[in-house]
């Protein structure tokens, strides 16, 4: 059956573990916390062995079939932790998952997590999961839902906040749930059981929505061209200089080009991201970015970053701010690639 993430803990407490769970969506924090709750319940129920499988690129789905069929020498109960970043298992994967769901082995739980989900991802494989276990689609928290989400999270951490204080927190984190969770955890640590008004929130909470180069690059990678442009204008108004912004941008563009090349060559992008020390909470963002452009275009972006650096240092004519904005917009929106030729 389909299950809402906010009802997962109650469901886990009220029934034995199901043979299979699918947790999928574009909110990494919620996906991670739901998966962690299932893993914790599995440990409580004696699932002492856990096997992690990364299903991407040239993944051999026989690894799942053979792993499930094999006998364990160390534990009678096993958890298979299957990472499916794209949320699309393909024909072989769909058949392997359906076979598991149609005849789930005893003392085995299959947990599938994906960092992307929409109605187009669903199919016979997810329907089979829904019959045998639970499907938890994790939809992005909408702006009008953010205040309720923040208020609930504050209460879960033993904090009470006025509506104005919650609204201030929402403004500071700008929809970034991971930043919000970090700020709330910090509040609970610094002021346990506090009743927070607007002034108290202002004192305790850092301005997580400040316009810095990290957020600028994230906006471009997320495909939000308008936000990237707005943030760049704010940075310019604050007195930042293009040469100070470029190193971080160039590093990310180069890293994305390398990941895109791994994907184009059929390699394991998940392993490549781990090797590049990209946080798990950021991996979905990087994957969407490399899916947006082919590897050759990321190489063009690397060259453009170098050209902007030369402009900013007076070695080439042009407007460095305008060129930088065009690069960011093109990274965010493939249809805007003609801007780089302007």
From TrEMBL:
Gene Ontology MF terms in the entry: DNA binding; DNA-directed DNA polymerase activity
Recorded catalytic activity of this chain's protein: DNA(n) + a 2'-deoxyribonucleoside 5'-triphosphate = DNA(n+1) + diphosphate
GO cellular component, one term: DNA polymerase III complex
Gene Ontology biological process terms in this record: DNA-templated DNA replication
DNA polymerase III delta N-terminal domain sequence ranges: 21-135
Top EC class of this enzyme: transferase
EC number per UniProt: 2.7.7.7
UniProt cross-references to InterPro entries, sorted A to Z: DNA_pol3_clamp-load_cplx_C (IPR008921), DNA_pol3_delta_N (IPR010372), DNA_polIII_delta (IPR005790), P-loop_NTPase (IPR027417)
Highest taxon of source: Bacteria
Keywords for this protein: DNA replication, DNA-directed DNA polymerase, Nucleotidyltransferase, Transferase
Family per record: Belongs to the DNA polymerase HolA subunit family.
Name of this chain's protein: DNA polymerase III subunit delta
């Amino acid at each position: 059956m389909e299950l809402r993430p906010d009802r997962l803990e109650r469901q886990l407490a009220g029934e034995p573990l199901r043979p299979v769970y699918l947790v999928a969506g574009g909110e990494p924090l919620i996906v991670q916390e739901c998966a962690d709750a299932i893993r914790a319940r599995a440990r409580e129920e004696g699932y002492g062995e856990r096997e992690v499988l990364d299903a991407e690129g040239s993944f051999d789905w026989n690894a799942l079939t053979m792993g499930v069929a094999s006998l364990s020498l160390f534990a009678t109960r096993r958890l298979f932790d299957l990472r499916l970043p794209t949320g699309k298992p393909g024909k072989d994967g769909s058949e392997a998952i359906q076979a598991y769901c149609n005849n789930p082995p005893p003392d085995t739980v299959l947990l599938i997590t994906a960092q992307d989900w929409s109605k187009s991802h669903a199919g016979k494989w997810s329907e089979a999961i829904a019959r045998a276990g639970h499907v938890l689609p994790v939809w992005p928290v909408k702006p009008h839902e953010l205040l309720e989400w923040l208020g609930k999270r504050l209460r879960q951490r033993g904090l009470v906040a006025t509506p104005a204080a919650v609204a201030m927190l929402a403004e500071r984190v700008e929809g970034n749930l991971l930043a919000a969770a970090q700020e709330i955890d910090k509040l609970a640590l610094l002021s346990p059981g506090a009743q927070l008004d607007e002034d108290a929130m202002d004192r305790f909470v850092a301005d997580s929505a400040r316009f810095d180069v990290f957020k600028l690059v994230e906006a471009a990678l997320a495909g939000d061209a308008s936000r990237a442009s707005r943030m760049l204008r704010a940075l310019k108004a604050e007195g930042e200089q293009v040469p100070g912004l470029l190193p971080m941008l160039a590093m990310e563009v180069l890293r994305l080009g390398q990941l895109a090349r791994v994907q184009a060559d059929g390699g394991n992008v998940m392993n490549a991201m781990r090797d590049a020390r990209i946080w798990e909470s950021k991996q979905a963002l990087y994957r969407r970015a490399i899916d947006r452009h082919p590897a050759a275009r990321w190489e063009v972006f690397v060259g453009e970053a170098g050209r902007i650096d030369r402009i900013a240092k007076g070695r080439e004519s042009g407007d460095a701010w305008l060129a930088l904005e065009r690069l960011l917009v093109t990274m965010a929106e493939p249809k805007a690639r003609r801007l780089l030729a302007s």
